[in-house]
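Checklist before submission:
- one chain only
- standard amino acids only
- sequence pasted in full

Submission:
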Amino acid sequence: MTGSLLTVDAVDAAYGSARVLHKVSLRVDPGEMVFIAGRNGAGKTTLLKTIAGFMPPAAGAVRLEGRDLRGIRPENVARLGVRYVFQDKRVFSRLTVRENLELAAHPSGERMSDVVARMLSIYPAMEKFLDSKAGGLSGGQRQILLIGRALTGNPKILLIDEPTEGLAAGVIDDIFRLLSEMKGRLSMLIVEQNLPVVARLADRVYVMKEGKIFQELVTRAEIEATGALERNL
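Returned file contents:
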């Protein structure tokens, strides 16, 4: 694992007495787009929350560039460069899109003009919504706004939970194009159940079952065989 940006080493996690993760180990190297696939209840979201500091591991370690993240609060994990884009696509609905971006810009110290420029570079159509309430955005537009906010302050890695869940096919295409443009420029660990999206974008795929890493797919042939992947979920 030498040279990896993020390493998860034999991590256990539990909600009270209910153990959810069992000796999970994975890595994300610089510039990689790594996916986690698995059925509902496999532990995928719990794994992202553990990496981001929202759940302390009961055993094992999470390291960013070799630094142990155990015991570090989620907001400080974010300041170290780990940004978590939650599954629920929740924005500050009563604030404008511009104000949502400003909330991300302030703690990062990045100039607001640069934050807005980056948002428009990844999704030019957002310009007409900048001064509209974020609650009026579609699900896909909220997802893109959350990714744009997460990019504030030049993070080292994005953790994205189910970016295409519940979205129409045309909007999924927008998310796919956005992720494609970011591929290779930023490290990402993405939970996703849309297997065609996984097959077209992933550098590597971890398949989770019952809180464990069941399989790691590392070659293009393995990753693109989505039928075989689906049979293993």
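Reviewer check: The first strand starts at residue 6 and ends at 15.
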